[in-house]
Amino acid sequence: MKIIDTVAGLRATVARWKAHGERVALVPTMGNLHTGHLQLVERARKSADRVVVSIFVNPMQFSDGSGDGGDFERYPRTFDADCKKLSVISDQPEVIFAPAVQVMYPAGFEQETRVKVPGISSILCGEFRPGHFVGVATIVAKLFNMVQPDVAVFGEKDYQQLLVIRRFVTDLCFPVEVLGMPTVREKNGLAMSSRNTYLSAHERMHAAMLYQSLQYAKQQIESGESDFAMIQTQAIAQLKEAGFRPEYFEIRRAQDLQMPTDTDEQRVILVAAWLGKARLIDNIMVGNME
Ligand code: PAF
Fold first, then answer.
1. Domain-embedded: residue 85
2. 250 has pLDDT over 60
3. Whose CA is nearest to atom 9 of ligand 1?
4. What tens digit of pLDDT does each residue of 89-110 get?
5. Hey, which of 27, 143, 158 would you mutate to test ligand 1's pocket, going by the most ligand atoms within 8 Å of its Cβ?
6. Residues 254, 206 within the same domain
7. Is the pLDDT reported for residue 290 higher than 60?
8. How far apart are CA 192 and CA 157, in angstroms?
9. pTM for the complete prediction?
10. How high is the pLDDT of residue 206?
11. From atom 1 of ligand 1, which residue's Cα is the shortest distance away?
12. Cα separations (Å) of 148 from 41, 97, 105, 176?
């Protein structure tokens, strides 16, 4: 496992692989790796000969005026522990790409060309974190151009992010297959997330309620409840009562996160809520009952 921190070094390594006709997979991360990330690496290994894991805390996706001030500075950076975790798994990546901010944004990111996916970037999380998905799409596009992967693997916990990435990959004709992997959960159902480290031990137990609220809403829909507004309002009220500060709890069409219609193949229920110092997001799929 090689740690590379320059674009030239990365390109030279990938060029050698490609010269031998090898398939390359990328797993983009911001570090503070947990079991969910390691499963993405495992999946990447199954679909490519060579695997690159990028570790980069991307300032552009934090500069969102969300009232989330200082989130970039306080984001957990655990590089040595991350390398150790990756070095002991059987699906160990060939390369960890860990560039400095100056490598990714040599001219400073304020003046940087950006990738903006309209519509889907400004709803749900995008409404509460303006600019966030522009930051995500821009950095992922840059990583795609640097690594030139055949396949890239992302977690479905960040479902909206996955759709944003799929959209720009299609629209800008990136020759990259984008794979989404199911959310990995703690025993109590809490979705694994790097931000869970902001939770106290007590909050971590309590946070499981977020997934329970999704499961309950799913059950309601599957047993025929069609008043989605009522389900959403009820869930928000219950989360507030339980000490969460919900941003949204929404039932949407899974393919594009638009409002659900009677003919949807699949729906998704998405939630974002603060608990203590942690902003938590989660989602659950609901099949069409027709
Ligand atoms: O999901 C993440 O960790 C980040 O948003 C990503 C995709 C690595 C881009 O910085």
1. yes
2. yes
3. 136
4. 999 999 999 999 999 999 987 7
5. 158
6. yes
7. no
8. 8
9. 0.96
10. 97
11. 29
12. 17, 13, 18, 8
